[in-house]
Amino acid sequence: MRYEIRVEGHMSETLAKAFPELEYVLMSGQTVLFGSVVDEAQLFGLLARCQSLGLRVLEMRQTPE
Amino acid sequence: MGSAAHDLTHSGGESAVAATEDQPVSTGQCVDPLGDPFLRTRFALPARPGTFLPRHRLNQHLDQALRTPLAMVNGPAGAGKTLLVADWAAGLEQPVAWLTVEAEGKRPGMFWAYFLQAVRAGGRTLPEGVGGPTDADHVDQRVLSAIAENLEAAGPALTVVLDEYERVTAPEIADQLEFVLRHAGQGLHLVLVTRTEPMLSLHRYRAAGELTEIRDAELAFTPEEAVALLDLHGLTLSLAAARALVERTRGWAAGLRLCALAARESPDPAAYLKEFEADRSTIADYLLGEVLKRQPEQTQDLLLRVSVLDRFCPDLVNSLTGRDDAERILTDLHRDNAFVERLGHSWFRLHPLFGEILRTYLRVHRPGLESELHLRAARWLRQAGSLPETLAHGAAAGDWDFTAGALVDDLAIGQFFTGLGSDDLTGLFAEMGPEATSPATDLVRAARDLARSDFQHGLAHLRDARAHPATDAGDPAAVQLSCALLEALAARLTGSPALAERAAETAEDVRPELPPHLLDKHPELPALLLTHLGSTRLWAGRFEDARVALSQVVGAPGRASTVLAREESMGHLALIDYLNGWPAQAEHKALEAVSETERYGLSPPSGSGIGQVVLAAVAVDRDELGRAEALLDEAAELSVAPHDPVTAAGRAIVTARLQLARGNAPAAVKAADPDVSAAVASPWADSHETLVTSAAHLAEGRPEQAADMLRQLADDQPSCAVEAARIQLAVGNEEAAVDLLDRVPAAGRPGPAVTVRATLVRAQAADAAGDADAAHRLVAQALLDARREQLRRPFLDAGRWIRPLLVTAPLNELAAGWLTPGSSTRTGPAGSQPLPLPIVVEDLTTRELEVLQRLAQMMSTQEIAADLYVSVNTVKTHLKSLYRKLVVNRRSAAVRRGREMGLL
Questions:
Q1: Distance between CA atoms of B309 and B800, rounded to whole angstroms?
Q2: Which residues in chain B are contacts of A14 at CB distance < 8 A?
């Protein structure tokens, strides 16, 4: 499954390394993390990581392969 | 226990345990289910820094928590939840218990052990009966009930704060908390501090007005509060500027604080704040970067390095930085409420928000340093005597020689076998590759394999451990003692008494060379070793020697880590009693063994099942066959080491006897072979197997073979000799029978199960010889001896000759109520109830009577089934049971017997 997670604000390059398994792109005051996710457990793990990094998640959605 | 722990909690500098200031562990005997000391910092209210801003509106809202059973403070990391609740709790007049949840949130047993410890640390004395769980993964309902009952009954209501509740991920824990909450009534106020919605049925509490709830929106700073907060940091801000700042940070406490720090360090704070408002980076990331780069280089370095630690004190931090400025830097950081929180006793931790970010920075900016830091931390922690953390960091560093060495040096290898921590240890060493070759790593591998009954590999690793030259690192005595423990276990599993004795001697020899405090810390090590020694001696038939070893284990004070060893030793002692013919004593000990584990809330899969085997054996002696079968099934489920010779032999004997009692001779013969490979034969196991086979021959009408079998029988087991005598008598060898009885040594103090049978054999001999008086007298004596123990089996096995005797006075009086159905309770022993199961001339049920009547009419099984509108199988069941009650095995005999008894 591929997912994208949209968080508020521009992430620094260093912070983006906290998500080595995802790619990211900055756009209009937001950062979009995207990539493939193995299963739901990983998905929730990513969400928890966002939370523990103090990131505000604006959107999360599955994208077509 | 309560008061010692109490001293430790109320933090503050004037600690009475200053000598251990640098150790994160509590003193005293408080250990968690894994046998590790509880970390006292986990039970301490976090200290509030000088820049903490108390917010009246929130404290007031929290006061409502004292009127509701449940309160929840729910907000993201850095929202200021922990300090808010800590500040509120510190001002309470009521007692407060605090627990910062860590990894135990994944394991109910651990969680409740920490919960109980927090309650104790909160000043509540719990009665000894509340043993607490000893299994990391399970908690017994009785433990929960005891906690709830105690909270409800005693003193003023206790407020329990569970901080970082989001780490509770095991769904059972939420249910268990609700159970305790419901049953503790007014005695408990639970406050959950969490980042995520807990899995409690909050809607019900909410609907009933039983929930105090503070969420993110309420935690957010108002512009007025922001002004006050920044003022504490030495920044003066207009309300309008504060409003913009609050808008940018959405009132997020961590954001505001970091912003204040960054602004204060910048040349023009006002301009900086403007800049921050306009910036579009993620707040924490940006602010952290800003704050970090403004810190002195040493501070930046320190922050990155401590990110590998859950908690730290200045000395530990110095060992990571290689400098000596940690105390000053940490104190400054704490004063500014930046990055670190103070846990009391000069221990700190990173603010939960920054740990993750800083670790990311560390990996990016200092690649490769992480494992080096873990190793340094592990070395320091080992010096400080904190084993679990040492092992965790050692494993994180991937230094297996060090990690295994630490485990062995600490004498903690027994934890692989306490049924509690073995999973954790196995998980910890799962990554260990074959490249680590120190004796300690081989010992760990051997322990891991033996703990899961993999002999081949376990024994091979044990040989490797012996073969490797001792390295400079590590204590050779600790290696030897650990080796001795594993060898004793190997000896037990392979039935090799000589090996076990040698292992025990080695252990004795090296003990004086080991530090006493380590030996005290690990009572499970000698307890396990003695249990294995006792088991091996028991296997070899040396009952008295076995008893000496096992009694030492049972006699030692009970600790969580020795529960399994105690249970096993008690079970083995029970087996000895049973084999010596003392069923009541055996039952008593076996029950004690089983209840020992229950008291600690240990879940069944940890037990060895030997207690259940003995209970089943006693049940067979009492002819409670259904119960015996249920117990055997239970034992089979429990058995974690199916190849343990003693347990396997015990189970074989009891299963075979059960089958014999049910009249299923072939199954009995099959079950009698314990199917274990042992270096040395076990006299009692062999004798019992021979006897069962012989009895089966007899039952199937092959007296010659039965007598033949007996010739192979060694005559050192009184219980076997007596039964052999019965078989000899049954096949007509009266002389041989009496001769066998005369040779039964009286010195062994055989119990009633032996003497009753012996007396019955003599009675039968007398009866056969036509000496009716002697037969009467002997049966009377047997009845008297058997009644107290409810021993029914010997009379049922005795044969047909005894039945006419039992209906004559005064024998009928002695048998009434427990052996035969009888109205006479007058003669029953005081205090014992007449048993519901009269055996010898047991009444037939209406249905069985109907079946018997149709048998008498020469109807086939199918015809009876059709006639009674039941299935053929049901008829067969009735037939079996009426055969048993009438003590026959054929239809014609059943009909004849029914006529004799006037049933037809």
A1: 78
A2: 285, 289, 360-361, 364-365
pTM for the structure as a whole: 0.72
* Minimum-distance CB partner of A14 among B78, B252, B360: B360
Scan residues 19-78 of B and list those with Cβ closer than 8 Å to A: 76-78
CA distance B283 to B610: 62
Number of folded domains that form chain A: 1
Q: Quick check: B357 and A54 CB within 8 A? A: yes
Confidence of residue B711 (pLDDT cuts 50, 70, 90): confident
DSSP lists the bridge partners of residue A25 as A32
ipTM score for this prediction: 0.83
Q: CATH number for the domain including A13?
A: 3.30.70
Residue type, B539: W
**CA of B102 vs chain A CAs: smallest distance (Å):** 15
What is the number of other CB atoms lying within 10 angstroms of the CB of residue B640?
Answer: 18
Correct CATH for B2-217 of 3.30.830.10, 3.30.43.10, 3.40.50.300, 3.40.30.10: 3.40.50.300
What pLDDT does A61 receive?
93
Average pLDDT over residues B599-627: 77
CA distance B627 to B631: 6
Q: Which of A17, A21, A52 to mutate to test the interface with B (most CBs of B within 10 A)?
A: A52
Residues of B in contact with A9 (CB under 8 A): 280-283, 285-286
B126: left (phi over 0), alpha (psi -120 to 50) or beta: beta
- Given this model, what pLDDT does residue B199 score? 86
Instruction: Identify residue B82 by its one-letter amino acid code.
Output: T
DSSP H stretches of helix in B208-335:
216-219, 223-232, 239-249, 253-265, 269-278, 283-294, 297-306, 314-321, 326-335
**Sign of the CA dihedral running B85, B90, B94, B96:** positive
Is the Cβ–Cβ distance between B43 and B98 less than 8 Å?
A: yes
Residues of chain A contacting B284 with CB distance shorter than 8 Å = 53-55
pLDDT bracket for residue B418 (50, 70, 90): confident
Interface of B with A in 287-306 (CB under 8 A): 289
Angle, in degrees to the nearest 10, between helices B253-265 and B223-232: 40
Minimal CA separation from B357 to chain A, in Å: 6
Partner-chain residue, chosen from A17, A51, A55, that has the shortest CB–CB distance to B364: A17
* CB–CB contact A8 B282 (8 Å): yes
Which residues does residue B214 pair with via DSSP β-bridges, in sequence order?
B73
- Taking each continuous run of H as one helix and of E as one strand, the counts in chain A are 2, 4
User: Which of B77, B254, B289 has its CB closest to that of A12?
Assistant: B289
The pLDDT tens digits of the residues spanning B556-592 come to 877 777 888 888 899 999 999 999 888 988 998 888 8
Residue ranges of domains in chain B: 2-217, 223-294, 297-379, 399-522, 846-900
Percent of chain B with pLDDT over 90: 25
Percent of the residues in chain B that have a pLDDT greater than 70, as a whole number? 89
B450 φ, ψ (degrees, to nearest 5): -65, -35
Mutate to test the interface with A, among B247, B259, B281, B362 (most CBs of A within 10 A): B281
DSSP secondary structure string for all residues of B516-565: HHHHHH-THHHHHHHHHHHHHHHHTT-HHHHHHHHHHHHHSPP-GGGHHH
Supply the range of the domain harboring residue A22: 2-63
CATH number, domain B846-900, options 3.30.40.10, 1.25.40.10, 1.10.340.30, 1.10.10.10: 1.10.10.10
Smallest Cβ–Cβ distance between A14 and the set B280, B352, B361 belongs to B361
